[in-house]
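Our consortium's second objective concerns turning raw sequence data into structural hypotheses that experimental partners can test. To show how far this objective has progressed, the report includes one record in full. It was chosen at random from the queue rather than selected for favorable results. The single chain below, 509 residues long, was entered without modification.
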Amino acid sequence: MSGGRFVVQRHRARSPHYDLRLELDGVLVSWAVPKGPTLDASARRTAFRVEDHPLEYFDFEGVIPAGQYGAGDVTVWDVGTWSPREGDDPRRGLSDGSLHVDLHGHKLTGRFALVRRGGAGDRGGGDRGGGDREQWLLMHKKDAHAVEGWSPDEHPRSVLSGRTNDEVRADPERLWRSDLPAERASVLVHAAPGGPSAEELDELDSLPGAGTWHVHGRELRLTNLDKELFPARDGQPPVTKRELVRYAAEVAPVVLPYLEGRALNMHRYPDGAGRKGFWHKERPAHAPDWVTGWDNPDADPGETGTYVVVDEPATLVWAANFGALEWHPWTSRTDAPDLPTYALIDIDPGERTTWDDVLVLARLHRTALEHLDVRAQAKVTGRRGVQIWVPVRRGPTFEDTRTWVERLSRTVGAVVPELVSWKWEVRERRGLARLDYTQNAVNKTLVAPYSPRAVAGAGVSMPIRWEELDDPVLRPDRFTVRDVAARLAEHGDPFRALLATEQDLPPLS
């Protein structure tokens, strides 16, 4: 056979390594090479045979999210074509443990040999120092392309983007979701996922006050579409239920990664914002059978304990029609409800707190997090404050995250004590800003990114870039459901990088 394509990906997971992959028989035959391939003919590189990868992974460059197989950052370090040594059958070579190939890449050129430890024909793998993985040796032959002392670490940049692993991790363009089919596993970060088609939106617009809408692969029964749910604001018309349903359908694919696999507390206002609202934590009996439920083993007495879990975009459309104007996901997932995946910082203004005061506190938290080398992202609440989400590697308890946020916020508060009040302090200090670390508890929530708020004009809890804290036009209630589509198109989703962040909270003295 004539060979095919090859790729080498620089992969920083639990241990940094390089992955050599050869296209063969519709898959990528793969080896993990801890020290990386080299052009030095005198070097011998250990290479562990790993499972075949799908062809869709060939040019993946981005981040594999925490909690998934291979979590870490990936660059396409080299790419090109390969061919077997003349007269060789590469399938036989793989089976026998001796494979000789010519690589024609940007960095790797010349003949390479892959030999299974223990010798050709040893199907037991010989010395399998990599646990239960076959251990091979990767060598460059002495030919015109060999370079003495050549090190892959001296050539770190991607041949696709020119970026390093650090740069890709800081601002990934793609995520690899190993829980999805291979054809859908590579997910664009900054481009908004697909919303409803123009035909589906036209169908919604043509419905009378009630009717059936087919969207996101589901059939939903919609009611009271012309009801005014949000009062008018800034001279604009009120926001109707039809507009909220449309917004939920359009933004659901963007919001879904922050909600899926989590219990949802819904803030319901069946008669609209400004009227009586209440928390709704249970999955209604009349919910469609495709709306996922989760049975909370620690439910309060009198509750059924069955929560709604948003595991597909159509569920948010159903929630909007149900009168849920706000979406509040748990910070833990249903498979481990006592272990949070985010630590939450809530800058809650008091009656005497100005927006400038809130910005001072937010900027101080920004500086502290940068100093600690902790990745986090801020969002305005859609009402008066700022919230900061800090992704954490699953393991710490809610008590751990609550203690960490309290220590961080007390350190920040000590810089500007005239702006901050703690809830137990004397009445004279009430009305100042609260740095509310108590939200770090099971079943306590902060409103989700892009969730509407029950305020005039349908304000939105909008993710922002850190530098926007210095923008003089920024306001906590600046954005509404009518602004989100244009903003996503222009700036992408600033929160998206949090999905790929796996970090431990550093100790605070």
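The partners drew two points from this record. The longest strand covers residues 72-84. The chain has nine helices and 25 strands. Both points have been shared with the crystallography group to help prioritize constructs.
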